[in-house]
Amino acid sequence: MQVRKRSARAFAPAHITGFFCIHDHEDPRKKGSTGCGIVLDGGVVTTVTSAEELEETQIILNGEQVGGHTTRTVVNMLTNSPLLVESVANIPIGCGFGASAAGALSTAYALNDALSLDLTSAKLIETAHIADVVNRSGLGDVIAQSYGGAVIRTAPGAPEYGKVDWIPVASKEVLCLTLGELDTGSVISDPDFAWRITSMGKGAMKRLMISPTFETFMQCSRDFALGTGLASDTIIDAIEAVESAGGMASQAMLGESVFAIAEPERRDAVIEKLSEFGQPLAYHLNNCRAGLL
Description:
The protein is α+β, with helices and mostly antiparallel strands. It has two domains: 7-166, 2-Layer Sandwich (Ribosomal Protein S5, domain 2), CATH 3.30.230.10; 170-285, Alpha-Beta Plaits (2-Layer Sandwich), CATH 3.30.70.890. It has helices spanning 69-78, 99-114, 121-134, 141-145, 184-188, 191-210, 214-228, 233-244, 267-274; strands at residues 7-23, 32-50, 58-61, 64-66, 83-89, 150-155, 163-167, 172-180, 248-251, 256-261, 281-285, 291-292. Helix 8 runs antiparallel to helix 9. The protein starts with 6 loop residues before the first strand and ends with a strand.
């Protein structure tokens, strides 16, 4: 007998962190980060299909079967049934765009609908957050992707504990340049980096809250990238090149990527400078958030 399949589709946007502080806790619901970042219109679309003929859950990313540890944790937390999880990402993977969190969060929403679990958004967000932190693939992306915009994370953790505020900002183009991957887990588990990140992050947060504008966010992010020592020589060169063309730029945390903004009259000059290092990608900052499609 052919097994009837139930499926659902959901989207979760990319999130670029500009600066952050690490907040460790034995309870993964309370573990996370504070800081500020931006949510983009690019992201991950995931289709979840109930597939009882499979022996175990299969996770497909951009047409290829992957381990998908963060996404798999979400599945295991919500069901014992085997699923086919198919994600399509139009953002770079492992480069500071919150792709692991977006995959996990979109999976949670689609799985909930496909299996009629009738869970609230808070529970789905909590599940994705726990999966992200226990797999050390991220700390604060999930909560930001759940709200959209320029998100200030003022308290760490899942919805019951985490709190957010926003920088009021109109939709704007964000130019991105990916130079390579960076292992989030190895950085946040390094005691020296963790201390510098939290120290610099606290200072950046104080500056931002005194003057909560998008320009301040960009300046604080730039100073954070350089001050923590996370920015490589190539990242620094790319940031300085953007600034020489009249734009503002910083590093996507945590990734070997640059994100930049420019006034319309300086856009072409900024793209030309970024193109010296690779192929720029264009997204938009807006108020899109995770949810069903």
